[in-house]
Amino acid sequence: MNAVTMTDCRKPFAETLIELARQDERIVAVCNDSVGSSNLGEFQTLFPDRLVNVGIAEQNMVGVGAGLANAGLIPFVCGASPFITGRALEQVKVDVAYNRSHVVLCGMSPGFAYGELGATHHSIEDLAWLRAIDGLDVVVPADARQTAAAVRWAATNNGPSFLRISRTPVPEINEREDTDFKPGTSETLLIGSDATIIATGTMVWRAMDAARQLGNEGVSVGVINMASIAPMDEAAVVRAAHTTRLLVTVEESVPRGGLGGAVAEVTAHYSPVRMRMLGTDTFAPTGNVEELTRHFGLDSESIAATVRAGLA
Description:
Layout (H helix, E strand, L loop, with lengths): L9 H14 L3 E5 L9 H6 L4 E3 L4 H13 L3 E7 H6 L2 H10 L5 E5 L17 H6 L5 E3 L4 H13 L4 E5 L21 E4 L4 E5 L4 H13 L4 E5 L2 E3 L3 H10 L2 E5 L8 H12 L3 E5 L10 H7 L4 H12 L1
Parallel strand pairs: 1-2, 1-3, 3-4, 4-6, 5-6, 8-9, 8-11, 11-12
Antiparallel strand pairs: 5-10, 7-9
Helix pairs in contact: 1-7, 3-5, 8-12, 9-10
């Protein structure tokens, strides 16, 4: 069997940003002493006058990005997700979202991608924080292709957006021909009649693996890639609630206010259904990504077990 290629999504992010910058001189990057961790090294070499490094000052970084947008540029503001959200949340709300500025906020290495650096560097609350801000599109790509598509969309979207760019390597989800990203839409990867797993980001391929395991046991499980957290594809959630008797949400973040909370809001309004929410329910301990994934029951075997228990 051929080995599966796993990709750090910061690579297609940087490649696509460079491609766009070659085509449009308005594209600039802003970072917080994170040229390396945001994979902006080549961008800096190619466009030294179009990268602004503010140092470890995230509030200033977001404010500078908003100012550049007001001057007619298209800033991609890049920093570790826990800091671009937690430290600069007021600036994200007021300078960017309230003013409807065309700023692309890029949360790098989200979830518990920083592993052993511990809870201060784990970004598990970012989806809940940002989903509460009006007018801010929140996007969590599942693989390299979707990351590149989301970057292209964000460059042309006339408004604020947040891209959650995975550091933890992921495989390609499928060989889709449509490489465009559209906010408020989802991607149905498998259709099932017993349960539906709604996953986002790094959890999508694990959800697919869990669904295949269950399929071998005669359990029919659908999988939805919900890359657009805000706005959300409510119609897809309602269809899944109508056609299957269990929904399981899976995210590398806190379900309270995150993907799980968003799906629960939709089902409560339109189609109550049995649900299970998988995510990080508390501060993550120190450990590598695989250890933390198993600790929180987010590996494919644990996802499959949750589906079995929910259908019992």
